[in-house]
Amino acid sequence: MIGFFIALISGALMSIQGVLNTKVTEATSMWVANSFVQLTAFLVCLVAWAVSDRTSFKGLLSVEPKYFLLGGVIGAFITLTVIKSMDALGPAKAVMLIVISQLIVAYVIELFGMFGVEKQEFSWRKLIGALTAIVGFILFKW
Fold first, then answer.
1. Could you tell me the pTM of the whole model?
2. Alpha-carbon distances of 105 from 18, 66, 71, 93, 125, rounded to whole Å
3. Helix crossing, 71-89 with 2-27: angle to 10°?
4. How far apart are the first and last CA of the chain?
5. How does pLDDT run across 19-67, given as a tens digit for each residue?
């Protein structure tokens, strides 16, 4: 049950962050805003690490395959695309499409067992759920 609430908080925070980042971009530029977002996230993570974890960063050298380390690079493009989509579509439409895209890509990752995720069997129910989300977006936009 805790995972459910954490996911709800995550979605809410992503929506709020997207709006805030879009406003920062209006006052600066795309890459200044993105750099600020990534820098402040890095600083918060360093403080949290210093206070609670202290695991050695040397462990990063043993991560295999090495492409698993691309999360930060992808994070910069996530910030960029969220800002651009919210600016172009508005927060509600952008978030709906972002969530639909996340759902579909996550399901494909599970279906094919990509990136070391345990492979799942195809489920019509999950496909219908994804299609329902797409229809919901069309109704929302219309």
1. 0.84
2. 20, 21, 16, 18, 16
3. 70
4. 34
5. 999 999 999 999 999 999 999 999 999 999 999 988 999 999 999 999 9
